[in-house]
Design goal:
Helix content is about 40%, strand content about 15%. By secondary structure, it is α/β, with parallel strands linked by helices. Helix 6 packs parallel to helix 7 (about 130-140) and helix 7 (about 130-140) runs parallel beside helix 9.
Length: about 400
């Protein structure tokens, strides 16, 4: 029997019923969709509160297509996830569809029974990057591929939630010791990731493959008075929203600023400033929008502002660029690698240059915009799947 591909779907299942997909969710979903489109045998793995669940193609298709019944819980879900009933219902739905299940210690035997020799395990969501789990996967005879989105929690721990830094370090240590292939999304992040892996004891073979950035069809939604700029991403310290609030406070007649994204963590000062804005402020928050609504607002903006301190990839910048919307970004290697001459790069310590650029873009015409062609998933998988 030909080797199979086993995709870890724990992250995607854990996020069911909790709002729009995050960037990491989208990557796991793209792998799910790709594997289902191929003739190769594919299976899904989900770590649940009671152990591991194995999914066949039919169950994976139901997950991909949004056909899960998330209205019913079961006893395990109610007991294990009292504080997170959505997670309990999601795991209960997967238990109803699983073709096999096992305890946490029985993973190797489960995989040996259901996967041919020479199969591969793919982890793109960073769930289950535990040495015990990876040892069992290797014991079952599978090769291990891990997509590492970035190592920002190790390079910039001040921008991570304090309780996540050490768990993330342990995950990367497990990758260093057990992965056969590490998938990097840019050369810039690859250099940072491999430097951390070297400190953790071993640098596995790597491949660089840009993430795919599909161009979403815009869906009309309410827009502020023009001109306006957009900032897209979770409101957390690394994204540097406070810098934009400072800029707008200094402008005598500021344009509109749409802050697109939900509130994150460790950002009480910025949240307080947003809460204190008057109803007629040019700054507006909008969260929970669909991809199409975001595309519409990005397309109508004079520019996307991206003053992040650190980024692993920067999907919002590429989404804006694909729509022809100018991008003003922090001077980071990852942006320069992906956006080339399309974007304007500025230091986040240079408020004057940001205000000057924003003022210039306020008067720019939107009729002659030309978008750039973003990376696509076909190229990504061409690079990755030839290795595994």
């Amino acid at each position: 029997m030909a080797p199979a591909r086993l995709l870890d779907l724990t992250r995607l299942v854990s996020r069911l019923g909790k709002g729009p997909m995050t960037g990491v969710d989208r990557v796991e979903y793209a792998y799910l969709d790709q594997f289902l489109r191929m003739d190769t045998l594919c299976l899904g793995l989900v770590r649940s509160a009671a152990g591991f669940l194995l999914l066949d193609r039919a169950a994976m298709t139901t997950l991909r297509d949004g056909g899960l019944d998330l209205t019913r819980n079961d006893l395990i879900g109610r007991i294990a996830w009292r504080r997170d009933p959505a997670r309990g219902r999601a795991e209960a739905a997967m238990r109803r569809l699983a073709i096999a299940r096992c305890t946490k210690r029985g993973l190797a035997r489960l995989l040996q029974r259901h996967l041919p020799s020479g199969s591969s395990y793919f982890n793109t969501g960073h769930a289950n990057l535990d040495p015990r789990n990876l040892c069992q996967i290797r014991k079952a005879g599978l090769r291990i591929a891990v997509l590492v989105h970035d190592v920002i929690p190790l390079d910039h721990p001040a921008f991570a939630r304090p309780d996540t830094v050490e768990p993330f370090r342990r995950k990367m240590q497990a990758v260093a010791h057990h992965a056969d292939l590490v998938i990097h999304t840019t050369e810039a992040t690859r250099a940072q990731t491999e430097a951390q892996l070297a400190r953790l004891g071993r640098v596995p073979e790597g491949v660089t493959a840009n993430l795919g950035v599909p161009v979403t069809e815009p869906i009309v939604t309410d827009t502020p008075a023009t001109p306006y700029f957009a900032c897209l991403g979770t409101i957390e310290p690394r994204k540097n929203h406070g810098f934009l609030l400072d800029l707008w406070a200094q402008m005598p007649d500021p344009p509109g600023l749409l802050i697109l994204g939900g509130r994150g963590w460790s950002n009480a000062e910025v949240f307080s400033r947003l809460d204190a804005l008057p109803p007629d402020s040019p700054i507006q928050e909008r969260a929970g929008l669909s991809d199409g609504q975001i595309a519409f607002l990005l397309h109508g903006a004079q520019g996307l502002l991206f003053p992040s301190y650190a980024e692993g990839f920067g999907i919002p910048a590429l989404e804006a660029a694909a729509l022809g919307t100018p991008v003003v970004a922090a001077n980071l290697p990852v942006f320069q690698e992906l956006l080339g001459e399309f974007a304007v790069y500025l230091e986040v310590t240079d408020s004057y240059s940001w205000m000057e650029t924003i003022g210039r873009l306020c008067d720019a015409s939107k009729t002659d915009r030309t978008g750039m062609v973003p990376p696509n998933w076909a190229e990504h998988f061409k690079h990755v799947l030839t290795r595994m």
